[in-house]
Amino acid sequence: MSQSPSLHAIDSYAELDPRLALPFPKAVLPVLRNTQLRKNVAHAIDVIQAKRARLVAEKTDWQQLRSAASAIRAHALENLGAYLEQFEARCTAAGGTVHWASDAAEARQIILDLLRQENASEVIKIKTMTSAEIQLNPFLEAAGVSAFETDLAEIILQLGEQEPSHIVVPALHVNRSQVREIFARRMGLKDLSDDPQELTNAARTYLRQKFLTIPTAISGANFLIAETGSVAVVESEGNGRMCLTLPRTMITLAGIEKVLPRFQDLEVMLQVLARSATGERMNPYTSLWTGVTPGDGPQNFHVILLDNGRSAMLTRPVERQTLKCIRCAACMNACPVYRQTGGHAYGSVYPGPIGAILTPQLMQMKYAQSLPYASSLCGACYEVCPVKINIPEVLLELRSQVVNQERSQTVRFFDPMYLGLRIANLLFAKAWRFHAAQRMGRIGLRLFTSKDGWIHSLPLLGAKWTQSRDLRGLPSQNFHEWWAERGPKSSKEAK
Amino acid sequence: MSAPLQSRQTILDSIRLATLPCAQDSPDRAEAYAALPRDYVRHGQLDANARLKLMIERLREYDADVVESSPTELPAVIKAQLTASGRHSFVAPEQLPAAWLAAGFEWKTDRGLTTNEIEQAQGVVTTAFCGIADSGTIVLHHSATEGRRVLSLLPDWHLIVLRASQVVETLPEYFEQCKQPPALVTWISGPSATADIEMTRIKGVHGPRFLNVIVVRDESLLSTKADLRPAETGSAKGRKPS
């Protein structure tokens, strides 16, 4: 962090910095009170979900495509070193330059150095969550480089000074009248209506001149192809094609996990990605390029391969599957928790179920420990995942790591949860202790049980349960007692 | 901060260490790759006519304007489309057949046109490498008749001439044709669009707002399966329209 030109600029981005974000249960409170935001999120999610369900249902080989996609991604990760080296060799041979960055600070510095070589004071950007992960924009701004986002949703967020809340449609928490307000204020268009067509036209006009005049662009990558050294970018608006075609210099930032063995693997990935992400048979534009092509597109091309915690994730057999992710966001669209909270409460640029497993791991389990608990473990995310990441399995594994971390801390010795668990451990060890505890519990809880047999409110720690749901009162006898009383009688009847 | 070269080594070492039990040398890796499950649909079941019908239907679902033509009528159909567009200045890729450059319109052929010259054009006419019926996708490999990438990007109106014999049913069938992976590819599925505002689909953001397709029924080529595959070198390069 010490290399950053200004810590202040990065602090302003703190909301989605996992090191500074509030734990999920606290971060979620303001969101739950914001009915407008929840309405916007639920509307957007419902639309995508319905479209996705329809287009997945028409695909008779959907499960076979998922299996293939999953196997290809797993294979690429198992052989990641070899495929990255192959990508590097082929990309270099085609006129590209490959850089390697161990962490966010290094990646930011490489990008800044490249921009300085170009004397660039402005840069246009294709939407890339990886650049948000390394907090590139505030860094560039502090270094005197203006970064212009070109994806419509990203413009809305950049001009509205808001944070992304979804990885595919980052501004889904903003509705049309809020977009109108942002554009009217920042583009100086007082007569703008809230018609999405008119708002989109305003963005087109706002960016056209930037596309034609700014000679440097930054992109992410959906896929790197080892076989050919090519990069693929999947998009809808054409802002990607503009950035990939018009500038003199293109800088692509890609996580090391993005590699696919062969060009042909796209026949699987492109089929599952668009359907999962936006509920389309195919997204309007996908571009693939290989190094530099004389006379067509940028003549200087740089790829930065970013580790930033990824290679460490490879070492663990259960968690490794997190890296299969192709960032389609189907898991957050399917998640009952995300639907209620939107993305900001996750305190990371990667929200939803994938964020809940990715963020703590990228932070080496030092931050974001509340995220593995931000799930009901219902498994909807696993069911829709086009590369079959078993998110609930990884969530449980991460929860166990969090617990192991916490219970070894002396400060947690009197933590009510760990104290409770130690007591439970003691009680469950012998049957007589357990039965004695049940008898005592029955007497104690009788005070709080209403006539309908339910406990509506408990004091102290118990209130954490009863503030949002009722608890059934303990029955007057347990199974053992019931069996001892009824068992012999019923077996006689059976004869 | 470590030197970039050192980072390369650090990252690769850490990946190697993490993936050690896996196949590292290339024969094993190739074998493991070949064994990956691929039992999804590779080849479509439709006959040539049904395939073409599906392609047209899917294109229209994306709001593309599609008309059909016979090979002999093509120049006239192109002219009719240009007229109907209400536009008069067009750009053309370097080797677009001369017969397609209808008289009465202003044409600029791309022999190194500047960005501004292309930006000022109101439309563009190109060929394509392939059509994929299942998703209504048109693939450009940017040959001399498909044009440089910028050519089919800046003008607001894009007319693609697609031969029926170039249309396959599934995406894997397209990849089968690419024995040599191309260096540049653009997959186009309908005009530029966004759903970023309340998931309302809006046509036309930065790419061409109007996508027009002429499907040429080159029936003679539909007779044998082998002929369904366009030339390996890419698209209708240099081929006359009739």
List the helices and strands and how they pair.
The complex is a heterodimer of chains A (495) and B (242).
Chain A: H1 7-11, H2 24-33, H3 35-57, H4 62-78, H5 80-93, E1 97-101, H6 104-117, E2 122-125, H7 129-133, H8 136-142, E3 146-149, H9 152-160, H10 176-187, H11 196-213, E4 216-219, E5 223-225, E6 230-235, H12 239-245, E7 249-255, E8 259-260, H13 266-278, E9 285-290, E10 300-306, H14 310-314, H15 330-334, H16 336-341, H17 352-362, H18 380-384, H19 391-407, H20 416-428, H21 431-446, E11 454-455, H22 463-466, E12 471-472, H23 479-494
Parallel strand pairs in A: 1-10, 2-3, 2-4, 4-7, 5-8, 7-10
Antiparallel strand pairs in A: 5-6, 6-9, 11-12
Chain B: H1 4-18, H2 26-34, H3 48-61, E1 65-69, H4 74-85, E2 89-92, E3 106-109, H5 115-120, E4 123-127, E5 130-132, E6 137-140, E7 157-163, E8 167-168, H6 171-177, E9 185-188, E10 193-194, E11 202-203, E12 210-216
Parallel strand pairs in B: 1-12, 2-3, 2-4, 4-7, 5-8, 7-12
Antiparallel strand pairs in B: 5-6, 6-9, 10-11
Q: Can you walk me through this structure?
A:
The complex is a heterodimer of chains A (495) and B (242). Chain A is elongated and about 90 Å long. In chain A, strand 5 (223-225) and strand 6 (230-235) form a beta hairpin. Helices cover 51% and strands 11% of the residues of chain A. Chain A has a 6-stranded parallel beta sheet, sandwiched between helices. In chain A, strands 8-5-6-9 form a 4-stranded mixed beta sheet. Chain A has a two-stranded antiparallel ribbon with strand order 11-12. Among the domains of chain A are: 7-182 and 211-312, NagB/RpiA/CoA transferase-like (Rossmann fold), CATH 3.40.50.10420; 428-494, no CATH class. Chain A has 23 helices and 12 strands. By secondary structure, chain A is of the alpha/beta class. Chain A starts with 6 loop residues before the first helix and ends with a helix. Chain B has 242 residues and is α/β, with parallel strands linked by helices. In chain B, 26% of the residues lie in helices and 20% in strands. Chain B has a 6-stranded parallel beta sheet, with helices on both faces. A 4-stranded mixed beta sheet of chain B has the order 8-5-6-9. The model of chain B is unreliable at 221-242 (pLDDT under 50). The chains are: A alpha/beta (495), B alpha/beta (242). The interface between A and B is large, with 101 and 74 residues.
